[in-house]
């Protein structure tokens, strides 16, 4: 259901957006996954389980990146959690949000820059 309600971007489009100051990549995987596999270079982190708290400006866990007025590319391992995160972020009024089709796996396969 979430996939039908959100915008996704291909890994090729994401590679073009990467490094653009108007876009923020957000990793919604758990910290243990990031520690084991790395993440997209320069990406912010907001695990799917805490995403609403990180987005909500009234939350003590709010991350100011979500008040930046920028556009967001959410990603996870293969695209499932990021679809849910994108849907929820849009419901919360975050603005322009997209989910990376294929997630971090597709990013790595395409040779996208990784850190950690």
What would your notes on this structure say?
The protein is built from six helices and seven strands. The protein has 116 residues and is an alpha/beta fold. The strands form two sheets. A five-stranded parallel β-sheet has the order 1-6-5-2-4. The longest helix is centred in the C-terminal third of the chain and has 12 residues, at 80-91. It is globular and about 40 Å long.
Overall mean pLDDT stands at 97
Q: Could you name the ranges where pLDDT drops below 50 across 5 or more consecutive residues?
A: none
SS-based class:
alpha/beta
Cα gyration radius (Å): 13 Å
Largest sheet: 5 strands, parallel
3D shape: globular
Oligomer: single chain
For the biggest β-sheet, the strand order reads: 1-6-5-2-4
- List the helices and strands in order: HEHEHEEHEHEHE
**Would you report the number of β strands?**
7
Strand content: 15-25%
Number of helices: 6
Distance between the termini: 33 Å
The portion of residues assigned to helices is: 25-40%
């Amino acid at each position: 259901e979430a996939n039908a309600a959100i915008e996704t971007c291909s890994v090729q489009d994401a590679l073009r957006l990467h490094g653009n100051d108007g876009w923020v990549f957000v990793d919604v995987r758990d910290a243990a996954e990031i520690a084991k596999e790395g993440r997209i270079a320069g990406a912010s982190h907001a695990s799917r389980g805490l995403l609403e708290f990180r987005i909500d400006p009234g939350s003590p866990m709010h991350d100011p990146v979500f008040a930046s007025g920028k556009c967001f590319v959410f990603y996870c391992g293969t695209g499932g959690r990021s679809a849910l995160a994108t849907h929820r972020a849009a419901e919360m009024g975050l603005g322009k949000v997209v989910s990376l089709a294929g997630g971090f796996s597709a990013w790595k396969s395409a040779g996208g820059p990784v850190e950690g």
